[in-house]
Amino acid sequence: MAFFHGVKTTESPTSIIPAAPCEAAMPVYFGTAPVHRTATLKNKINYPVLCNAYDDAVMALGYSGDWKKWTLCENIYAEFALYSMKPCVFVNVFDPAKHKTSVATEPATLEKGEVKLSNCDIILSSLVVKDETGSTTYVLGTDYTAAYDEDYYVVVARLAGGSIASDTAALTVDYDYADPTKVDKDEIIGGVNAATGEEEGLEAIEKVYPITRKVPGLIVATGWSHDVEVAAVMAAKAWNINTLFKALAIIDIPVNGTGAPELYTDVPAYKTSKNLVDDLQHVLWPMLRLGETEYRYSSQFAALIQWTTHHKGNDIPYVSPSNQSIKCDSLISGAEDGRKEVSMSLSKVNYLNENGITTALNFSKGWTAWGNRNACYPGNTDTKDVFITNRLMFNWLQAEFILTFWQKVDAPINRRLIETIVDSFNDRLNGLTAQEAILGGRIEFRKEDNPVSSLIDGKIKFKIFLTPPPPAESLEADFELDPEYFNTLFSE
User: Fold this and answer.
1) Among the four residues 20, 194, 299, 398, which has the most C-beta atoms within 10 Å?
2) Which PANTHER family match (predicted)?
3) Which of 339-369 are b and which e, b meaning 16 or more Cβ less than 10 Å from the residue's Cβ?
């Protein structure tokens, strides 16, 4: 030891490690958005976009009220306008360079020097303005200007001093317009691009944590999850995010199309026949309507889970979204041009619940989500998997454990390491118990789980026990008349 004359200090690591930040039930939405309307396409296609506010999402992804074409816009509206929640991540698969249709020599007539083109999805960079015969091509910025109006229609205006004469009225235009109908389920499912090596579609969930530092809690593909292949891949991804994390896939059962259930009694058979029975799937039926606006249920249910977790659970996902208010005034099913209102009594909604399907009920609290049980029920009755709150709690606490103790990977295996992990996580579980977010929990380092052959190979294992409180799904009281109270009729 080197000679020292004086006073000096050292530091030791804190024996208790606080829990790492970990979002509970954060949704990741997959679908299509009108990104051609935004200032740049950089990091907008098959790339996780983290949003904390309505304007974040609109600026990053664009917006349209046509939710059939632009499915992510329904999620944007539900997340920020209906439920005022944050944060969330959007993954857009629409590519303006690929999903487009060309229009040539479309007539356009100037009135007072300008004209609004008829298509609201024109890709502005593709616009070419010509004279009436198509023989002369005018120059942007010299002969004319072109810009979106507030409704995203392109307005072409003549510039004074340019080549378009002041008495010219007739023009022709060529352009490409965004055509999301060319996006198919294969692009939502995605995979790894063989040419670039980039993850696309649902596979892009692998990029969410590395880019945003947010752990996916919910996987949502509104407008697409009714397809059984998409639903199956959503479940597969939910089990294995970054080889570490789990999420819950929110699935819509279709309300129209070939083979779609027409009556509530048909829904359980459809669910089973389409193999919507995964532990990490939560299925919904039918659609919601509020005023004149229709919602695919998943767009609201994902935001409702997040709202419940934040407002009722203090950002811990132990409170069920069931029996929490949703934004609707009726339930609907059937073809788009012939929607029918679905009447659901308590006995009907309970029939769906007993088959692992969440629906909605209009009762003493108004319209509420109704159903606690994941898609695996009734085939799987393990309470850890069955109840949505238990599943979310297990997913969240596992992710939190991983992130908290990642800093200890490659530390020396000694008593200090083991005691730090055991003491820290027991302290965390005790705190959750005090909040009544769990009924109890503990972590143990057991000899039987750690044979010498594992220890000398650098592997240690802990055992964690915990019990989240299941939702009070059924409350019952027995009423009995007590004749003794007749004695109150007689004075003493």
Assistant:
1) 299
2) FELS-2 PROPHAGE PROTEIN, PTHR35861
3) beebebeeebbbbbbebbbbbbbbeeeebbb
